């Protein structure tokens, strides 16, 4: 008779050094690990709850301006540097890592209307209410030098905005018309108009760099082609568009921040229907900026909050607000897509995390794996009602909350009226207009 | 000139005539066009003018130029279309990025940019007094400031190489390079020539040349020639040793498989073998090689011929029918492939065999006398053996043993018969079945022995099949009809025996039909079926046309099922093997089962009991409903898709490490501390436009609109 012995081979359970991980023999037999769906559901629920627990997006407030922050710009080569212009003509350059101001320039008299950096990061341009365009060096003046602009261009009219080309020494300004400037000249090399109203902002397309978009106060968005020196198309919306922002990963799509509380994402080849209408704000949307990944954008609103929207969703995924933050005028997404900055009326620039519950700093591999797993679980179970409720819950200031309720009631009433109108009129006589088309007045060729 | 003179003349005359007209104008009378034309009509000299006028009249007026806005609009439209076209090249990229499982930012693969120290230094100047002092010191000692690698002395020494020397060396190198390139070009050109003939000629030329050299060498230097000869011999030996041109290589094997079907492959094979022979041939002796050649060829042939063919040959070796039988049983699949008609019948034989097992023993005497009959039976038994070799073998053994012994006696006769048949068959020559066999076997002579027998068994089987379904004699068998008519003369001697067989078969058939109706499901279609065909088709069509009309019955069925499913189930707590024997095929006793069966209480009556058209689902639990997903989420099109995604776990508890990592890859990955730039054409493999936007716009003529120019002018005046 053969006796079977238990044999323990130390190779299978002994660590080579003390620093090795313990060997854990695993058996993946599904019968040994039952209830996989309920267990994962619970894990997803916990992950969602933890996400809300750890959601502390506010990082820092940069104070120092003595008037409302009117414009913001990112440094193209340096993540830590941010430029801001205020309503008193002051321009400040900030260091985000140290969270302090490293330079202050009295750039203009009156408002600083626009600020933009050169693609190389060596200089930046400002326009102000004093009808001037000024180019400044990014580095401070040297030992014993005076703070002076590199160039100053005196214009005929007030410039309301400026943007720099992404690759070449060309910048565009807007005011009564859109001017394209060569950096070396004092006269615009090309100027384009369409209509007579003042243009509030102009933006270069970051991908196809010869394209520009502008929005004017006569409720329209105009697209220009710099190479052919001609406007391309104009779309007229219900209300005024404050700014537009191009998607940095998709050459043809841009998002417009509108006064009617909505944002509209357009495909520039089909302007008659926006690809998506983003509606969550309860007051005019003042600014919009894309995440450098092109998957999301952030919008700043007059309702004292900023919201983050996925490009393909009409509802925002996040809303940021603080007690002291007033009307947010400018917002920027940093170029590593981690942070969001916003400049508001009450003279502060605030720094937020783009992902509210994200842990900052370097993660260990296990932390990273856990994070990824939790993220996937949240995604997997996001449609379950309890999880959805927790994930969507946000605390809002009373003003916004009541505004939302009011808006909802108004919208519902409007919808009911529309339905009733259709119901009580001759079939086919009242056209059913989709929400997307409702806000487009006309497209002018 | 003349024309103008003429015109002047005519105008003069015109004015002369129109003097009274002028007077009229002066007097204030009204003037009509006709008055003016009067003199024109009269004067013939104005014909040319008239013609010109007519010509002008016939021509259309030039259209008004479009107004400025229109023109601008057209410009805009053209520009827009152009831009849209440029943008549409991004469509695939955008789509890909939107659907990507994972995107890693930044997109561009950046190489570490380490600026050389000179560049860093060039942008920097000494400003403070201390810095300036240090730099002064450095300059004094001629230490390198900008380029730290080379001092001026070193630089000078580098430049010291004499000019002439350098020139010569360069020329030398150039020549060598040129020569090499010439040779290379030539070789490449020759290699590129595709003509086989050319290469053959070249090869032959080379061979001839070698031979000539060899001859010369023999004359001049016999020792060297001997060495050369040895070399050739050695090459031959190597060739013999190697498997290079044998048929064991991959190519050769593949060709050997193909050789059966493909003439070209066979030829290629033969060519290779010829090559091998040629290479391994001894140079001197011719007489001995004949034997060897034959031997090798045989061997080669053996290797060359695929296994199937060999097998058939082996079959053909023994004319013994017993051997034959075993062989054919081995190659049963091949046989069944040959005639699909045979396929369904073994089953029938199985059944009939099990029934008529005793019969052969009982009717031995008759069978002994009529060996033809026996043979058919033998074939049948053989077939049934094929069909169920394991099960029926033992039971059959006792009976078949005797039969076999007797048959052995008869085998001699049988063989003779076979031979006579064979002759007949060979005289007829082409029977489709035979044709279907491999061409290789056709060539083999001994195989013919086997062939007619096969054919005959087939015929008999067909007949059997016919008798089995004797009710329908007019069975249409388009494939075999011709063959039968051909073969009837062959089967003449069998004709009387057919009846007997039939008799035997009839009662068999009766038994079959009474016992197992499943026989009807033979693949051979019966007449009834054929008659029904049309009707059924009709019915099918109607059914198809009104496919959706059976809703009521479906619904009732569904409801019945729902009711059944919702009924409380009895609980059986019997433990098999508890207190009694258990095992495979044993069931717990009825008493026990009755004792341990817990009957479920009758539930409350269903809500839809009296509602024939409604199914009310009573299973829905409101407590769980709060946790369930109400609406199918967006990307899913069916609930089972969603359920499946939920049911597959992604955690490391259920998945291996690798799978877990793969399942939890995040959609967007960003490198910390890296700037993500907008997508560029180069990132996705497109060519970005070579001309810069600035240069394009500067070349553009209509740079500044007129309005703006005016403004500029005004401002400059101010």
Multimeric status of the protein: heterodimer
> Greatest interface and its residue counts?
A-B, 74 and 71 residues
Q: Which structural class do you get from the secondary structure elements of chain B?
A: mainly alpha
- Give me the number of helical elements of chain B: 36
Query: Which whole number gives the mean pLDDT of chain B?
Result: 68
**Number of extended strands of chain A:** 29
Give the strand tally of chain B. 4
Radius of gyration of chain A: 27 Å
CATH architecture of the domain at 238-356 and 440-445 in chain A: 7 Propeller
Protein name (chain A): DDB1- and CUL4-associated factor 13
InterPro entries (chain A): Sof1, WD40/YVTN_repeat-like_dom_sf, WD40_repeat_CS, WD40_repeat_dom_sf, WD40_rpt, WD_repeat_DCAF13/WDSOF1
Subcellular location (chain A): Nucleus, Nucleolus
Main location (chain A): nucleus
Describe the secondary structure blueprint for this structure.
The complex is a heterodimer of chains A (445) and B (718).
Chain A: H1 36-53, E1 58-63, E2 69-74, E3 81-86, E4 90-95, E5 100-106, E6 112-117, E7 123-128, E8 132-137, E9 151-154, E10 161-164, E11 170-174, E12 178-182, E13 188-192, E14 199-204, E15 211-216, E16 220-225, E17 230-237, E18 241-246, E19 253-258, E20 262-267, E21 276-279, E22 285-290, E23 296-301, E24 306-310, E25 318-320, E26 328-333, E27 339-344, E28 348-353, H2 365-380, H3 385-392, H4 398-423, H5 435-438, E29 440-444
Antiparallel strand pairs in A: 1-28, 2-3, 3-4, 4-5, 6-7, 7-8, 8-9, 10-11, 11-12, 12-13, 14-15, 15-16, 16-17, 17-29, 18-19, 19-20, 20-21, 22-23, 23-24, 24-25, 26-27, 27-28
Helix pairs in contact in A: 1-2, 1-3
Chain B: H1 2-17, H2 19-27, H3 33-42, H4 47-58, H5 68-87, H6 91-99, E1 103-105, H7 117-122, H8 129-140, H9 152-158, H10 163-192, H11 196-220, H12 222-241, H13 250-259, H14 263-280, H15 289-304, H16 307-317, H17 321-330, H18 332-338, H19 345-355, H20 359-362, H21 364-369, H22 371-387, H23 393-428, H24 432-436, H25 439-443, H26 447-468, H27 478-491, H28 495-515, H29 527-545, H30 551-566, E2 571-572, H31 590-596, E3 597-598, H32 622-625, H33 639-647, H34 657-663, E4 668-670, H35 693-699, H36 706-717
Parallel strand pairs in B: 1-4
Antiparallel strand pairs in B: 2-3
Helix pairs in contact in B: 11-12, 13-14, 16-26, 19-22, 23-26
């Amino acid at each position: 008779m053969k006796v079977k012995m238990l044999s323990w081979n130390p190779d299978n359970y002994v660590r080579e050094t003390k620093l090795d991980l313990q060997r854990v023999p695993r058996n993946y037999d599904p019968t040994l690990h039952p209830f996989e769906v309920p267990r994962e559901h619970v894990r997803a629920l916990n992950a969602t709850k933890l996400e809300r627990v750890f959601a502390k997006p506010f990082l820092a407030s940069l104070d120092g301006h003595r008037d409302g922050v009117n414009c913001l710009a990112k440094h193209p080569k340096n993540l830590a540097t941010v430029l801001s212009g205020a309503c008193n003509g002051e321009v400040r350059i900030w260091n985000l890592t140290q969270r302090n101001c490293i330079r202050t320039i009295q750039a203009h008299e009156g408002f600083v209307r626009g600020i933009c950096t050169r693609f190389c990061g060596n200089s930046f341009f400002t326009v102000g209410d004093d009808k001037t365009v000024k180019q400044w060096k990014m580095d401070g003046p040297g030992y014993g030098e005076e703070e002076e602009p590199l160039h100053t261009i005196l214009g005929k009219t007030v410039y309301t905005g400026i943007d720099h080309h992404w690759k070449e020494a060309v910048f565009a300004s807007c005011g009564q018309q859109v001017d394209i400037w060569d950096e070396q000249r004092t006269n615009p090399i090309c100027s384009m108009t369409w209509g007579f109203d003042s243009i509030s902002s102009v933006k270069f397309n970051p991908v196809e760099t010869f394209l520009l978009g502008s929005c004017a106060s006569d409720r329209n968005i105009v697209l220009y082609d710099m190479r052919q020196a001609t406007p391309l198309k104009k779309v007229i919306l219900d209300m005024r568009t404050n700014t537009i922002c191009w998607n940095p990963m998709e050459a043809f799509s841009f998002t417009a921040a509108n006064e009617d509380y909505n944002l509209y994402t357009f495909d520039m080849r089909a302007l008659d229907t926006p690809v998506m209408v983003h509606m969550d704000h309860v007051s005019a949307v003042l600014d919009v900026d894309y995440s450098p990944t092109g998957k999301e954008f952030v919008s700043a609103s007059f309702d004292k909050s900023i919201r983050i929207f996925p490009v393909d969703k009409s509802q925002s995924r996040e809303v940021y607000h603080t007690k002291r933050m007033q009307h947010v005028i400018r917002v920027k997404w940093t170029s590593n897509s981690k942070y969001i900055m916003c400049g508001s009326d009450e003279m502060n620039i605030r720094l937020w995390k783009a992902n509210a519950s994200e842990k900052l700093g370097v993660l260990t591999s296990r932390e990273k794996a856990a994070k990824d797993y939790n993220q996937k679980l949240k995604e997997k179970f996001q449609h379950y009602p309890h999880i959805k409720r927790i994930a969507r819950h946000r605390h809002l200031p009373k003003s916004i909350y009541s505004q939302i309720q009011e808006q909802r009631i108004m919208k519902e009433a409007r919808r009911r009226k529309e339905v009733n109108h259709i119901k009580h009129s001759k079939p086919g006589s009242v056209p059913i207009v989709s929400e997307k088309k409702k806000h487009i007045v006309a497209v002018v060729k | 000139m003349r024309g103008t003179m003429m015109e002047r003349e005519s105008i003069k005359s015109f004015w002369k005539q129109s003097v009274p007209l002028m007077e009229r104008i002066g007097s204030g009378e009204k003037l009509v066009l006709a008055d003016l034309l009067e003199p024109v009509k009269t004067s013939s000299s104005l014909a040319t003018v008239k013609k010109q006028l007519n010509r002008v009249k016939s021509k259309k007026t030039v259209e008004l130029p479009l107004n400025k806005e229109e023109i601008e609009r057209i410009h805009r439209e053209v520009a827009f279309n152009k831009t849209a076209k440029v943008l549409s090249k991004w469509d695939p990229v955008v789509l890909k990025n939107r659907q990507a499982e994972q995107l890693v930012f930044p997109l561009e693969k950046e190489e570490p940019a380490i600026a050389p120290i000179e560049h860093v230094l060039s942008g920097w100047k000494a400003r403070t007094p201390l810095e300036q002092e240090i730099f002064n010191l450095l300059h004094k000692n001629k230490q390198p400031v900008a380029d730290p690698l080379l001092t001026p002395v070193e630089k000078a020494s580098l430049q010291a190489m004499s000019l002439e020397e350098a020139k010569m060396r360069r020329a030398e190198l150039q020549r060598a390079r040129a020569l090499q390139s010439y040779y290379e070009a030539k070789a490449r050109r020759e290699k590129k020539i595709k003509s086989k003939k050319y290469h053959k000629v070249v090869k032959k030329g080379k061979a001839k040349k070698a031979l000539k050299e060899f001859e010369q060498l023999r004359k001049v230097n016999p020792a060297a020639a001997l060495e050369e000869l040895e070399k050739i011999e050695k090459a031959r030996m190597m060739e013999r040793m190697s498997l290079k041109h044998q048929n064991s290589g991959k190519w050769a094997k593949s060709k050997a498989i193909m050789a059966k079907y493909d003439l070209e492959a066979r030829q290629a094979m033969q060519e290779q073998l010829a090559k091998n022979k040629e290479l391994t041939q001894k140079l001197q002796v011719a007489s001995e090689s004949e034997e060897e050649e034959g031997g090798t060829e045989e061997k080669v042939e053996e290797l060359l011929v695929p296994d199937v063919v060999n097998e058939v040959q082996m079959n053909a070796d023994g004319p013994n029918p017993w051997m034959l039988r075993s062989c054919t049983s081995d190659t049963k699949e091949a046989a069944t492939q040959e005639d699909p008609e045979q396929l369904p019948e073994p089953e029938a034989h199985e059944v009939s065999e099990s029934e008529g097992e005793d019969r052969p023993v009982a009717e031995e005497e008759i069978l002994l006398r009529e060996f033809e009959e026996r043979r058919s039976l033998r074939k049948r038994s053989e077939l049934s053996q094929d069909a169920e070799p394991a099960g029926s073998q033992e039971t059959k053994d006792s009976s078949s043993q005797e039969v076999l012994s007797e048959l052995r006696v008869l085998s001699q006769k049988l063989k003779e018969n076979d031979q006579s048949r064979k002759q007949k068959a060979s005289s007829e020559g082409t029977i489709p079945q035979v044709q279907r066999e491999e061409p290789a076997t056709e060539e083999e002579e001994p195989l013919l022995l086997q062939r007619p027998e096969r054919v005959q068994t087939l015929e008999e089987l067909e007949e059997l099949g016919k008798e089995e379904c004797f009710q329908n004699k007019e069975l249409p068998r388009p494939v075999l009809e011709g063959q039968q008519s051909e073969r009837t003369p062959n089967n003449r001697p069998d004709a009387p025996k057919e009846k007997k067989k039939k008799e035997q078969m009839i009662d068999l058939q009766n038994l079959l039909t009474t016992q197992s109706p499943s026989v009807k499901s033979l693949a051979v279609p019966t007449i009834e079926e054929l008659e029904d065909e049309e009707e059924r088709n009709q019915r099918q069509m109607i059914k198809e046309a009104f496919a959706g009309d059976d809703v009521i019955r479906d619904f009732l069925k569904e409801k019945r099922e729902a009711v059944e499913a919702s009924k409380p189930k009895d609980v059986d707590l019997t433990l098999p093997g508890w207190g009694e024997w258990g095992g495979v095929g044993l069931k717990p006793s009825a008493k026990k089962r009755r004792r341990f069966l817990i009957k479920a209480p009758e539930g409350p009556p269903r809500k839809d009991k009296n509602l024939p058209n409604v199914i009310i689902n009573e299973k829905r639990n409101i407590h769980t409903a709060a946790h369930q997903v109400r609406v199918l989420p967006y990307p899913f099109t069916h609930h089972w898709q969603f359920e499946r995604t939920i049911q597959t776990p992604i955690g490391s508890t259920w998945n291996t490490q690798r799978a877990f990592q793969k399942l939890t890859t995040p959609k967007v990955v960003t490198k910390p501390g890296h700037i993500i730039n907008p997508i560029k054409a180069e990132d996705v493999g497109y060519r970005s436009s070579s001309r810069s936007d600035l240069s394009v716009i500067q070349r553009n003529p209509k740079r500044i609109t007129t309005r703006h120019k005016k403004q500029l002018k005004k401002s400059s005046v101010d």
